[in-house]
Amino acid sequence: xxxxxxxxxxRRSATARSVLAxxxxxxxxxxxxxxxxxxxxxxAAAETEPTEPEFPVVGDVRAAAxxxxxxxxxxGAAIFHFGRxxxxxxxxxxxxxxxxxxxxxxFRLAGVEDPEHMQDARDSALSIVQGHRVAExxxxxxxxxDEYMADRIWPGTRGLAQAHLDAGQKVWxxxxxxxxxxxxxxxRLGLTGAxxxxxxxxxGVYTGRLVGEPLHGPAKAEAVRAxxxxxxxxxxxxxxxxxxxxxxxxxxxVGHPYAINPxxxxxxxxKDRDWRLRDYRTGRKAAKVGIPxxxxxxxxxxxxxxxxALHRRRH
Length: 315
Fold this sequence. Notes:
Elements: H1 2-48, E1 64-67, H2 78-88, H3 94-110, H4 115-129, H5 134-149, H6 155-166, E2 170-178, H7 179-188, E3 193-197, E4 199-202, E5 205-210, H8 218-231, E6 239-242, H9 248-253, E7 256-260, H10 264-272, E8 276-278, H11 284-289, H12 293-314
Helix pairs in contact: 2-3, 2-5, 3-4, 3-12, 5-7
């Protein structure tokens, strides 16, 4: 019995410690389970909740998107590509081609619009189409798009436009290019339509004059404002995209402005105002001048060659 009495306290003590250990393990397991569950919930919330509101908003029919064309949707200037196509069809002589080539090279290397060059290009285009039928130029424009423009569409910008279309919103081009050319491009890209410079025509024949002025700078903002009023849009819910500081008036109209392949002035303006930026250009030099480096060198070589040839003929 003495031996049994000696064993009993130890057996009881071991049992008490086991109970304590079991209870402690159970409590630790419960706490760890709660912690793991909380971590899983937080992880799931981080995956399902976006860091910023969804945009574009699906089904928001009072929102639309407005895209500049030159160097935003397409590399280079549409009017220069159009001029190249017209030269191929003998609408004008080599001298005009040299001027178009030089202006295009400058535009692609500088990455910005020069008002004097744009004015010269506009006047040249008006004189070239004067007396031709609108239907004729529209038909030719379809061919020129396939020859010189289709391969110059920025895939990134095209994707942004498609996102708006997929959300059920209308998407418009807004450009200083002729409205006929802009309409062809918009249709080929599946967009809603285009706002562009309107050339006067009488009985379907171009007169060589404009209706008003080129759709450039502040004129773009006025066009967007007028279209928004006609379409019942809320500009605060709309988006606009451009590469040029000349389009700051248009970008400032909307609630969602984007700087696409921006020139230096627009980049600074956008950063100061916390606007979104997208740059689809490649190469270190392209980041400075606004084009892929290889394309820039090609444009420079072509433009320089044309200028040299013209200089030699003059002398």
